[in-house]
Automatic annotation (TrEMBL):
Pfam families (alphabetical): A_deaminase
Co-factor note (free text): Binds 1 zinc ion per subunit.
Source species of the chain: Nocardia yunnanensis
Record keywords, A-Z: Hydrolase, Metal-binding, Nucleotide metabolism, Zinc
Superkingdom classification of source: Bacteria
Metal-binding keyword on record: yes
Name recorded for this polypeptide: Adenosine deaminase
Higher taxonomy: Bacteria, Bacillati, Actinomycetota, Actinomycetes, Mycobacteriales
Site features described as Important for catalytic activity, chain residue numbers: 234
Similarity annotation: Belongs to the metallo-dependent hydrolases superfamily. Adenosine and AMP deaminases family. Adenosine deaminase subfamily.
GO molecular function: 2'-deoxyadenosine deaminase activity; adenosine deaminase activity; zinc ion binding
Amino acid sequence: MTGPTPLTLASIRQAPKAVLHDHLDGGLRPATVLELATAIGYDQLPASDAESLAAWFRDAADSGSLERYLETFAHTVAVMQTPEGLRRVARECAEDLAADGVVYAEVRFAPEQHLEAGLTLDEVVEHTIAGFREGEAAAAAAGTPIRMVCLLTAMRHAARSREIAELTVRWRDRGVGGFDIAGAEAGYPPSRHLDAFDYMRANLAHFTIHAGEAFGLPSIHEAVAFCGCERLGHGVRITDDITDSADGPKLGVVANYVRDMRIPLELCPSSNVQTGAVPSIDKHPFDVLARLRFRVTVNTDNRLMSDTTMSNEMLKLAETFGYGWTDLERFTINAMKSAFIPFPERLRLIDEVIKPGYAVLLG
């Protein structure tokens, strides 16, 4: 073949991809939700077949409100309370991402939400990581190897963030790569959890923060200036600090700092539209931020709720903003540069997997 491969959904699936922002409880297979619900006697699902359930999740999440979007997780979390449920969901997560061409994935979840059946926090993490390892093995056997890393999330409206930070450090050499806080932003600023972030920094451990999704610039400012985050989960509202001028876009103090320090933005296009963070894909600030050379990355957020994959997200961006293979390669390398794994591993995946994979597609 000479010349670039045509950019289609099928060809994008062949491209090596890296995802930094994917929620375990937001990526279940609908059929798995049904089967696990039956196994544990959970009878509150809004639909009784996989197709209808998938449609319900998508439609319920497409509300324009982060708070209403988050309500859909009650059903997925409910079926992830047992060792069997956690292992299966984690295994299938790895298999599904690998089948979509993802070669590196950081998948996050909140252990504190999975204690209803009597598991301890450590047992929740243990079974989840075991599932990831099973999924990695299955993906390798299928010829689609993937590296899975777990991020532990604390809910920002709760009071267990220090405990989850300690759990993160305890498991960091056994499959956990970092820490996060998530949940409704309004009324729950990142600075409420300074004790957890201080602990992470004292232990030289990685962390990202959901900020600048449903709440504006103050959330980003706190996450960066007070909490010292390495990455911003979403961060789309950084555009509140970018104004138009006769000489082109003018960056304010926060936006300049985020760009200068190469703080990665974990952008999730479809999810950002669903939660009302942006009005539509064509109005998404991804392209503006990419052209201004922020370190933008492409992510899924919640594959079930958004009915999406990494390939779908990349195709939407390519069709909307005219991106080609070199652009998608740059966004993928941005993600790998920002990964919470040691530098030699990041470099190996970039040099031995990502660049060769895109070279084939570029012809």
